[in-house]
Amino acid sequence: MKRKIITTSLLVSCALICFAAVTGLAGKWKGSIKTADGDDISLTYNFNVDGDKLTGTIFSPSGELKIYDGKIINEKDFTFKVDVNDETVPSTGKFYGDSVVVVALLDGQKVHSVLKKVADKN
To answer: Superkingdom of this entry's organism (predicted)?
Structure first.
């Protein structure tokens, strides 16, 4: 009986630690993507984390995109979707604490972006 209680407690603790680590993902992140013709497009991501759900927005020179169907997979990995020109763009991400790498599948091409956390102005 004690073994079951200890095992259950450890599993719950591990899950809480994983989700606590990824809550550092919440907030504003900036980066850019390089287009096929070599132009850099500045992007600002605003991630919201609620348990294992990820939502938010992406701000680009073309406007604002809504992040939906976002999922926190573990303490580092996450997925989400955005709609660009009426096309669903699936994205994967990896959280490193001080940076985030996002890979989006846009028009059949993988587009990589490295994001840095924007400091709070409190």
So the answer is: Bacteria
- Total domains present in the chain: 1
According to DSSP H, which parts of the chain are helical? 2-22
Query: Is residue 96 classed exposed, middle or buried when 0-12, 13-18 and 19+ CB atoms within 10 A define those classes?
Result: exposed
**Phi, psi at residue 71, to the nearest 5°?**
-135, 135
| Burial (0-12, 13-18, 19+ Cβ within 10 Å), 18 | middle
65 part of a folded domain = yes
25-67, pLDDT tens digit by residue? 999 999 999 877 888 999 999 999 999 999 999 999 989 999 9
Taking the CB of residue 47, how many other CB atoms lie within 10 A of it? 25
Is 122 inside any structural domain?
A: no
Q: What is the pTM of this model?
A: 0.78
